[in-house]
């Protein structure tokens, strides 16, 4: 009963958060080339997508410090990076939230969270909130897999079970990368990302 209660609470939170602060526009479609960007990382250095991606592409993930769903996926993001960075697909994590709306997602808090969890991947800050709207990202976490030509090949959820990594039946990111490695198009190109809505700057 306790596990069911926690699950229902998380699903309720997801519905609430997903409905808030959604960006306008459709963003990149599958097959579109994404624009290069330059964002500051927690190491203080600025990172361009074109220089940070691997030989074969990148796993771009919009995530944050505070969302319970984002926290559930932190260990899995580390595993994805450790597994695929050497294969040409590093994880590039981006925090899109406005810290004035969500103070726990400030740049300093990003450093603290990365240190506490031992992030092995780049963690960048979309401070001006100019990048995530181009992807039409709505949730944290949400993945956008690009290939070596910076073309979008998959977008959506990391896998099919936010609550339990051991119960995952389909890892969408891994499946998409495997297809690209075989010279094929991913069988599944779009899924629904489950998580907290991105916290946009308040007007005025």
What's this model, at a glance?
With 204 residues, the chain is an alpha+beta fold. The chain has seven helices and nine strands, in the order H-E-E-H-E-H-H-E-H-E-H-E-E-E-H-E. The chain has one domain: Glutaredoxin, CATH 3.40.30.10.
Would you write up a description of this structure?
The protein is an alpha+beta fold and 204 residues long. It is built from seven helices and nine strands. It has helices spanning 2-18, 49-52, 68-72, 74-84, 107-117, 132-135, 172-181, and strands at 38-41, 46-48, 57-62, 91-95, 122-125, 139-140, 142-147, 152-156, 196-197. The longest helix has 17 residues, at 2-18. The chain is globular.
Strand content: 15-25%
Order of neighbouring strands in the sheet with most strands: 2-1-5-4-3-7-8
Shape: globular
Q: Can you tell me the CATH topology?
A: Glutaredoxin
The rounded distance between the terminal residues' Cα atoms is 44 Å
Give me the secondary-structure topology:
Blueprint: H1 2-18, E1 38-41, E2 46-48, H2 49-52, E3 57-62, H3 68-72, H4 74-84, E4 91-95, H5 107-117, E5 122-125, H6 132-135, E6 139-140, E7 142-147, E8 152-156, H7 172-181, E9 196-197
Parallel strand pairs: 3-4, 4-5
Antiparallel strand pairs: 1-2, 1-5, 3-7, 6-9, 7-8
